[in-house]
Amino acid sequence: MVRINRDELVQISVTGDIAHPAYGRSPYRVSAEGEPQVLSSASGITYNIRVGDSATQWAADHVEPAVSIKNPKGDGQTGENAGLNVLACVGNEAHVASGKAEGKKGIVTGKHGGAERVMVDFPRDVMEKMLIGDTLLIRAEGVGMKLVEHPAVKVFNLSPQLLSAWNIEEDADVLRVPVTHRVPAAVMGSGLGQNNVYRGDYDITLFDAHTADEYDLHSLRLGDLVAIVDADHSYGRIYRKDAVSIGIVIHGDSVVAGHGPGVTTLMTARDGKIDPVIDPEANIASLMNLRDDI
Q: Taking a C-beta distance cutoff of 8 angstroms, is the pair 120, 136 a contact?
């Protein structure tokens, strides 16, 4: 395992309630082709979609896998919900704290910006027992993590548990990081302009067929670990030649211009300090043994 400052990391409790799907006054979304569409959307308990499943095949817009939670206090930018979204890290353990599924355990798999929700994976039989409003307790750990021998690589939203399962290799001062896809920064959309990546995500747009085919982007799965090339996330998301940022696919595709499968940042480096290595198994479902059916 890549050596980290584990003894310095704080373990702290944060909570969120299973959130209800919501729509505006009109149910329509206007696609990038100008077509109004009504589609299933984000939040709630999504019984038939988990990490490891396709991020692009659904009759849905921004669909979130498994269980989506928010803290009912605060708006995501401030208050308790902001605390949940900043402190929860991908790979953290979540415990159901109320309802018929009380005591069951899940794993944090991503953070969705704008709506400011945290996604948690559970087996289907556990989700069948859940209700909107049930509370989850997350043992949050990861904020403040440093890679002791790789100071040029910054990490965000990453738990020690996921890092230890990731099979990252060290080659002098370069990290060879398994990913399922390389994604050019040119197709990254919604989420640009933020001055930090400690919560939320930004989207891989799939509207250019040539680029999507060249990089095999229609095969993206929820939970895939991917490399955004020529992208620096050190203090927000910017284009920077030869920088590489690594993230996890956290929600599904969208028909809306500037949107697509969302990516929560996990690490970033300039000047070639991250070398992405293609590995079809680089998905959190496989790495953390979340499913036995894929």
A: yes
Check whether 74 has a pLDDT greater than 90.
no
CATH for 185: 2.102.30.10
Q: Does any domain span residue 11?
A: yes
Residue 76 has pLDDT above 80, yes or no: no
CB atoms within 10 A of CB 87: 21
Helix (H) or strand (E) holding 37: strand 36-37
119 and 26, same structural domain?
Answer: yes
Dist. CA 163–CA 283, nearest whole Å: 12
Give me the amino acid identity at 257: A
Burial group, residue 285, by CB count within 10 angstroms (0-12, 13-18, 19+): buried
Same domain, 94 and 54: yes
Measured distance CA(122)–CA(236) in Å, rounded: 31
Domain of 61: which CATH number?
2.40.10.170
Q: What pLDDT does residue 77 have?
A: 78
Same-domain check for residues 45 and 129: yes
Helix (H) or strand (E) holding 161: helix 160-165
Q: How confident is the model at residue 104 (pLDDT cuts 50, 70, 90)?
A: very high
Mean pLDDT of 190-194: 93
Compute the average pLDDT of residues 83-111. 98
CA distance 63 to 10: 31
The torsion angles phi and psi of 44, rounded to 5 degrees, stand at 80, -155
On whether both 134 and 241 belong to a single domain, the answer is no
| 146 closest CA partner among 134, 155, 137 | 155
Residue 191, domain extent:
154-287
Task: Determine if residue 52 is left, alpha or beta; phi over 0 gives left, psi from -120 to 50 gives alpha, anything else beta.
Answer: left
